[in-house]
Amino acid sequence: MAEPRPMTPSDVTRAHARALANEHARDTRFPRLFSPVSLGARLSKNRVMRVATTSNLAEQGRVGERMLAFYRTVAEGGAGVLVSEAMRLHPLEGVVPHALPLFDPGVVPGLRRISDAIHEQGALFIVQLNQGGRQHLVRRVGTLVAPSDIACPRSGGVPHALSTREVGEMVEYFVTAAVNARDAEADGVEIHGAQGHLIGQFVSPFSNTRDDRYGGSLENRLRFALEIIEGARRRLGESAIIGYRMGVEEFTAGGVTIELACEAASVLSRSGLINYISLSQGNFNTIETHLPDRHWPQVTYRDIQRQIKQAVGDLVVVQSTRIQMPEQAEDILASGDGDMVGLCRALIVDPEWPRKARTGREHEIRRCIACNQCWDWITGPEPVGCATNPMAGREHQFGRLKPAAQRRRVAVIGGGPAGLEAARIAAERGHQVTLFEKSSRLGGKMAHAPGLPHGAELRHLLDFLIPAVKRLPVTVEFGASPDADTLIARGFEAFVVATGAEPTVPELEGDQSVPVVAVAGPDDLHAIDREGRVLVVMDEDGYFWGSAAAEAALQLAGRRGQTLHVVTRFFELFRELPMVSRIAALRALDLGGAVLHTSMAVAGSRHGAAVLRHYLTGRELVLEEAAGIVWVGRQRALGAPLYEGLRARGFETTTWIAGDAFSPRRLPHALTEAHHAARQI
After folding, report:
1. What pLDDT digit, counting tens, does each position of 541-573 carry?
2. 498 and 509: one domain?
3. DSSP notation for 215-251
4. 92 and 218 in one domain?
């Protein structure tokens, strides 16, 4: 069988050229962001790159409709370049067990469908090639290999140290995968040398203690990467894009520093074999730096990453990490700190980010709240999703939003995130919507978020939903908590009950001598004004509200000279919080001097002391002179009476309930249920 021809510049589709012309015919506030950029022989219509993230949407090792719809949606949103999720290169490699096995030519036809869908939108498609090496989140997944037999700092798994022969074989696996990507009509490949994966392990002195031609000097430690790049270039030809994903800083003693990264980038640039460098950071030892959450500033590593651009001159450099808004992207590009911007979480929460920015609708962008729920799911491993975008990963399931077959009068009861999402979707489908909110403001518990430590960005969800509802024909009635008879008397035909839940506390043992406060927001903490040496947080949430309340209580205790004790009956604190965010929260508590108690619960109070009891053994711990107990996470759903009342009055098929009104759970559940309900009306 004849080998497929190398990719050529003529492979840039006519659709691409037409889209490029249309893009530049429009005025935009972000001229640099929406100017074309050359990647070798290929031309990107703009400077937005969707950087790689796992989707876990493969179906039995093949591209199915779910994965195709996911990539098509991002391409339709207007990004100029889409980099695929990392592909499996070796039959025994399992860092991403649901990734496509690109060592298998059987993957090519399905991957070609993704290429076609992306090219139809005038965008370029680049396939990322990666091998995890020693890095895994759990101890026994796949086969651990590495340059040296040093344990993975996260899982503790000890890898097999690759022999010189095995390194050569691994190079061939990368090159074979690159050829399969070419056969799938991708525009090129990206070699993943960042985040402490196998190539990065060879580059880093932290993980490479070899004494052969692949260890020692930087030249030797880069040899593995360069052999892969050379092999890929030889097989793909000069017209293919070859990019390199580079780790600029491992934040680890003995690891890659920005100085070392600049030197390595210069070597790669001088080789003349690559068309761009895409920047990232961290490894599994410092995994929270890879996906910084709300504890970190936006555009987190701009100052570090600009040094790579200075080191490589004209080579295209892709800046990334927490670039949320087009104003930030434009400033990076206009200043020369980078040539493209890499977006990941920003395009999961809003795939239309580029199109909205280009057409003057940047105020409509749904911004990432940096909760890292997406990362938590894909490392689960579960399909990719988003806490605030119910469509993410479900594009094929939901499909495009369709106008309602029959326009109805719809009542949405409750103005929290679930109610706002239901009202938004119902109104977009053409229904006449009235939103009832019993308080004087919209947002529910999320409205309290800006008052929490590092909570300002959580407001982004409401900054999207509330203006969206205001732009639509939605009537909002404040101070309203209508019952079933009132709603029916007013002529409503369909209902979404999203009344949320209220915080409660259990009945506790003892003499009730220590005040207990159920927390709904940061202001509730100030109800504890009693003197004492300790302040106690009992966390039954294990998620965001638990960690946020603990950090808020830490600040309060610090101002009052008290010691904070954080208690959970679970085996670990904040167990439902994504790991990368849990690390930041636990670090803040430790630095603040908080005392953490796992497998324990507050049993009650006695003579001004809080009494803790071990969940497994019954052992008691008495905390004398307790100022108060903050109880987080115990809630009572409020929706059942209204929901059942409407159904009992003949509206069984046109009444829905969403979110905490049904059962107190997480934000993603609330938004997804509300979104789904509004699509059914």
Report:
1. 999 999 999 999 999 999 999 999 999 999 999
2. no
3. SSSHHHHTHHHHHHHHHHHHHH-TTSEEEEEEE----
4. yes
Q: Are strands 409-413 and 509-510 parallel, antiparallel or unpaired?
A: unpaired
Task: Enumerate residues 6+ apart whose C-beta is below 8 A from 391.
Answer: 73, 398, 675
Domain identity same for 622 and 660: no
Residue 130, both tokens: 């990666």
pLDDT at 449: 86
- Whether residue 609 is found in the same domain as residue 675: no
pTM of the predicted model, to two decimals?
0.93
Cα 611 from Cα 613, distance rounded (Å): 7
What is the enclosing helix (H) or strand (E) of 262? Answer: helix 258-271
Tokens 């994504």 found at = 578
pLDDT digits (tens, 9 = 90+) for 57-113: 999 999 999 999 999 999 999 999 999 999 989 887 755 667 899 999 999 999 999
Q: Which of 397, 415, 439 is the last residue of a domain?
A: 397
Contact 119, 125 (CB under 8 A): yes
DSSP string, 365-425: --------HHHHHHTTT-----SS-TTTT-HHHH-S----SS--EEEEE--SHHHHHHHHH
Q: Is residue 3 part of a domain?
A: no
Domain count, the chain: 3
In a domain, 330, yes or no: yes
Amino acid sitting at position 409 = R
Residues 557, 669: one domain? no
Residue type, position 371, single letter: C
- Give the tens place of pLDDT for each residue, 211-259: 999 999 999 999 999 999 999 999 999 999 999 999 999 999 999 999 9
